[in-house]
Amino acid sequence: MNIPKYRFVLGTLALLTVTAFAAVVFQVRGNLAGTVSFTPINPTQARLAVNLGGQLSHLGKTRTVFETVADFSGPVPVAVSSNVGVITAANGDRILFTQRWKAAPLGGNRYDVTAIVQVAGGTGRFMGVTGNGTYRAKLDLNTGTAIAEIDGGLIR
Q1: Is 73 exposed, middle or buried (0-12, 13-18, 19+ CB in 10 A)?
Q2: 30 and 151 in contact (C-beta within 8 Å)?
Q3: Residue 6 dihedral angles phi and psi, to the nearest 5°
Q4: Cβ-contact 64, 42 below 8 angstroms
Q5: Distance between CA atoms of 66 and 56, rounded to whole angstroms?
Q6: What is the predicted pLDDT for the residue at 2?
Q7: 3-state secondary structure at position 46
């Protein structure tokens, strides 16, 4: 078979271009449960440490941890700054993320929390990964319990 050189070169360039721009998207969904600790920093602010575990699609059994500082001086707690969290897969590979959250009071130191999450890289099989998502959580500062529903995507 005799393919003219220019056709071969153009075909090869097209294939390389498509390969370079191809991205694999993984939908990540699941429910997590765990603990939240409340440590006062000053009269109006506290550090919240959240530690959740459960199954996430395409990741399997995971552990998610993050800390945030919240200002409790108003009727609704607000984040003092953005915060960084880590999702650790069963094999130890990690996904790093930042989040912006908002809380709505449910009464008696219980809160409904929603957040927008931005993936900021990772380790192992998640090296160079990007993505985003949301979560909705219920935090009970009386019992120290937290549950969350995760919905997002990872791009490799």
Answers
A1: exposed
A2: no
A3: -65, -35
A4: no
A5: 17
A6: 55
A7: strand
Handedness of CA 37, 39, 99, 156 (dihedral sign): negative
Q: How far is C-alpha 73 from the geometric centre of its chain's CA atoms?
A: 27
Tell me how crowded residue 5 is: count the other CB atoms within 10 A of its CB. 7
Name the amino acid, one letter, at 70: A
Q: Which fold has domain 24-155?
A: AOC barrel-like (2.40.350)
Q: Give the predicted TM-score (pTM) of the model.
A: 0.82
Q: How far apart are CA 136 and CA 102, in angstroms?
A: 10
What's the burial of 12, exposed, middle or buried (CB within 10 Å: 0-12/13-18/19+)?
A: exposed
Q: Is pLDDT at 113 greater than 50 in this prediction?
A: yes
Q: Answer left, alpha or beta for residue 141, where phi above 0 means left and psi between -120 and 50 means alpha.
A: alpha
Structure token digits, residue 134: 């949301």
Whether residue 17 has pLDDT greater than 50? no
DSSP 74: S
Triad 88, 89, 91: Cα angle to 5°: 115
**CA-based nearest residue to 30, from 126, 128, 154, 142:** 154
